[in-house]
Design brief:
Largest sheet: 2 strands, parallel
Structural class: alpha+beta
Number of strands: 2
Order of helices and strands: EHEH
Number of helices: 2
Helix content: 25-40%
Shape: globular
Length: 70
C-alpha cells in the first residue's frame, strides 16, 4: 500500500491537469511495483480535494485516522 500525504498544487496552477498527471504517474509507478492500493488523507474542511481524488477513482474507507501530537 502506498500512502499519499500533504500534496498540493499551487492555487494559481490548479485546473490545468497537473495534479491529475501526478496521480496518474504515481499509479503507473506503483503498479509496476505491484502496489495496488493508495491511501490518501483529505482534511474534512477540504471538499475540493475530496472531489479531486474521487474523480481519480479514490473512495471513502470506513476508517478514521488517529494522531498523537507531542
Amino acid at each position: 500500500m502506498g500512502k499519499l500525504d500533504d500534496v498540493s498544487v499551487k492555487q494559481d496552477r490548479r485546473g490545468h491537469g497537473i495534479g491529475t498527471a501526478l496521480i496518474q504517474q504515481l499509479k503507473e509507478e506503483l503498479r509496476r511495483h505491484n502496489v495496488m492500493r493508495i491511501d490518501v488523507a483529505v482534511h474534512v474542511d477540504n471538499p475540493e480535494a475530496r472531489r479531486f481524488y474521487e474523480q481519480l477513482g479514490f473512495s471513502a474507507l470506513n476508517e478514521e485516522r488517529l494522531a498523537c501530537v507531542i
